[in-house]
Specification:
Helices cover 46% and strands 21% of the residues. It is an alpha+beta fold. It folds into two domains: 11-43; 50-152. Strands 1-2-3 form a three-stranded antiparallel beta sheet, with no helix packed on it. The chain has a three-stranded mixed beta sheet with strand order 5-4-6. Helix 1 (63-73) crosses helix 2 (81-98), helix 1 packs across helix 4 and helix 4 (121-131) runs antiparallel to helix 5. The longest helix has 18 residues, at 81-98.
């Protein structure tokens, strides 16, 4: 592993820890040249499908893009980065298990919507307003009314 401080390739692992979920390894390393310490993370790599956009374009699946979208919806909400990361991992795993080479972006959007609905209703409405492309306040209000009806049941 290349040292981010001096560029030396020779480093040693001081400590390794497995994440709670068991899908990530955190390693503390020390550079053998400059003696500075840094952390690296190892994650298993899944064969992810291409994402088919609404306009028909295909692009590589981006974990970061999903994370940023959820993070934006959860801004100023009591939702931790770990909660967001758990949603992204769940979606990644579900997509990999499907075994498809391509998946419409709408499938991913619906997965995100479902997870946000269970996590935080305000974040759900924020994400839905962008994802479902509400054209006016009426559509937005309809979504809120559906949410309130489900809450009362």
């Amino acid at each position: 592993m290349k040292c981010p401080f001096c560029g030396e390739i020779e480093t040693k692992v001081i400590d390794s820890r497995l994440s709670k979920e068991g899908d990530l390894i955190r390693r503390r390393r020390e550079c053998l040249k400059c003696s500075k310490r840094f952390t690296t993370f190892e994650r298993f790599e899944l064969s992810m499908p291409l994402v088919i956009k609404k306009d028909g374009r295909r692009e590589a699946f981006s974990r970061e893009k999903i994370f940023r979208g959820i993070q934006k919806a959860c801004e100023k909400r009591p939702v931790s980065t770990d909660d967001i990361d758990a949603i992204v991992r769940k979606i990644e795993t579900a997509l990999a298990q499907r075994g498809e080479k391509e998946v419409p972006s709408s499938v991913i959007g619906e997965m995100v919507i479902k997870e946000l609905y269970n996590l935080d209703k305000v974040a759900y409405v924020r994400f839905a307003s962008v994802y479902k492309e509400f054209k006016d306040v009426e559509q937005f209000m309809d979504e809120l009314k559906k949410l309130l009806r489900k809450k009362r049941k």
